[in-house]
Structures are given as structure tokens and as C-alpha cells.
Amino acid sequence: MDKTSCARPTNAGKPAKSFPGAIPEGSDTDNPATHAGGKLKGSAQPETPLLPASICVIKQPSFTSLRSVNAPSSLGEGVSLEKDYVRGKLIGQSSEARVYLLKSKKAAVPASTLLHLSKVHHPHIVFCPRVDIVEPDFQIWQVLEFCNGGSLWDFVSTLKEKTPVILVLQCFIQLAEALAYLGYGLTRQYEGHWEVDPNFTSPIIHSDLNLNNVLLHFGQCVEYGMPDLLVADFGMSTTADSPRKTAGTPQYYCPEVVSAGRGISSAPPMSIQSDVYTFGLTMYALIMRELWPPALPPCWLKLPPVYDQLGITNALRRCLEIKPDARPTMDNDPGTGLLGFVDVLWEKRHKMFMDEGPPDRSLFTRMDA
């Protein structure tokens, strides 16, 4: 690695949590820490300004979630979801969405093909069976699959011990598989064999991958004693053939946005390599429970020794490269692809489960329990 890219930062020697946006240890509501997009108060999620856009969200027949920005106090005139759902309590909030728990009036939810996301079917991507365009402001309301384990932020912010290593492996594997599908249409069939979905048409750029937008779900079959992880909240997503200058959540800006002055208007179009960077940020935040400083050279990244041994430290350094073309690709290219390493982690996760067992179930909270 070029040593010039690892020049000592102005606050060298201080712990990573001293950077803006870091998750402080032992913070409380009386002493909120400065945050890149707002403030962190104890274990509460960042208070970030809501963006002027709307996105909607769900659960299966009897429960549902609804996400929207600038949502009306009631579902309102012209919102066709009103005849199908009754809005319940607020259960979460992210940089551009408020999440409500809904009850369905009907057993069946009609699917929509208004957006490409309604055609995405992957075990680690939240399913979107319906999309409505609401007049007169033409807001987009999405009906999404409900995940009963809350968000990855919920998990990290309430954790009182180190993140279980086997859960880190689970998260790395499943988020990488989700990005492999979004970017390349690839799905894992078995070890070393990935196939392209014949219905895949264009790469999808999420543009806002972070702890808030990764959801946990306990299905009927719980693999390795852990919840599955699903990528959600596609309110800033776009396709690679129609890229936009969407920047995502401020605390998770990629270097190409930071170098453009943190402004959406001056930022370059997002790419699937932007998602690789935010994947690295999300994994770092899960492991260290703090945020990686924006655009810091990856040679400064240090993780506990167990992650060096697993190869995750080196993999995340590659993902956090400043230049997009220096980052790995989420495919099985023998030179740049990360999926060969994902196959290795499959085996390591299985061995760890057989040797040590699953993580303590009390660490997780089920919203439908």
C-alpha cells in the first residue's frame, strides 16, 4: 500500500470513538455526543434531519410496517393503502423514514410492478410486494416485508458486551450475498458456485446501507441459532443505468461524496462500489460499535485479533479503500471478487457453530414475541 495514503491524521493517537459520529461508551442523555448527522443520546439512534422524500414499508397478512417521510397524520385521502391497512404505533425512525406498525384489513396484498424493487426476490433483501404513488404530491409508498428482530442499530445500541463473532460472520456473509444480487444478480447455489438470476436486468445501487437499514428476522427455520439479516429501506436506491447523485446518511458517506463537499448536488453519481464502501462501514460499526471516520485511509483500521485470523480485517480494509476502483467487487471475479472469501466464511461459520454453539438468544429482541 502506498505510504502516502496512510499519512497520520491530525487527531492521530486518539481512539476512534473521538471522531465525530463515533458511538461513545457510557454516554447518557445528559451528555450527548456530537454526531455527524445530529446527536447520539445514550443508546438512542442518531437524530438526523428527515429528507424531503417519501418511502413506505410491511409484514405479512396480519402485521405490517409503513415507512414514510412527511407522512400525513392519517393515511389520508388518495392513499390506496388506507383500504387495506390500519396504522399503529411508531416503531422506528431512520434518516429518511418513520416506521409504523400496521394491521392488515385483508389477508392478501396485491403486488405492484411500478418499481423494479417489487421484482427483487432474495432471502437477504426485504421483499416489496406493493408500491403506490400518492397524489397530489406523487409520494411513493412501498409495502415491505416485516422483520421481527428490529434493526441492526437496535441490536448494537442495546448490546452490553462485544458483538458475538459468529454474528459478525453471519452479517458479513448475508450482506455480501445481498449486494452480490443487487449488483450482479448472483445467488449462491452451493460452495464455489454462484448463478445469475435470469430475471436480473440492471444493477441496483442501494446508496444508503447502514445499521438502521439492515433488519433482523427470525423465521420458522433459524439457521445457526441466529436471525437472518435483510437489506431494507431502498428510498435512495437507483439503477446503474440511471445513476443519481444520492448521498445517503451523512455518517455513512463514502469518500467520493465527502470529497465533493458532502453535498448531493456536487457529488458524483453513486455506483455499486459506493455500496461496497458502506458495507465496510456497516461491518466496522457492528464489530467496534463506533463509526469509521469519513474517508480515513484503511491502513488505520484495526480490529480485535480474532478478525485478523478470520481474514475479515483485510477484507474490510479493501472495502474501505478511498478510490472506488480499488475496492473489491461483490462478484466471483478471481482477481477482484469478494465472493470467494464469502465461501470461506461459510465454512468458518459452520465450524464456529459446531465448536462454540450459537450466541445467547437473550441478546436479541423479537418484536412479535
TrEMBL record:
InterPro entries: Kinase-like_dom_sf, NEK_Ser/Thr_kinase, Prot_kinase_dom. The keyword Flavoprotein does not apply. The keyword Nucleotide-binding applies. This is non-specific serine/threonine protein kinase. Residues 69-353 form the Protein kinase domain. SUPFAM superfamilies: Protein kinase-like (PK-like) (SSF56112). Pfam families: Pkinase. Residues 1-45 are annotated as: Disordered.
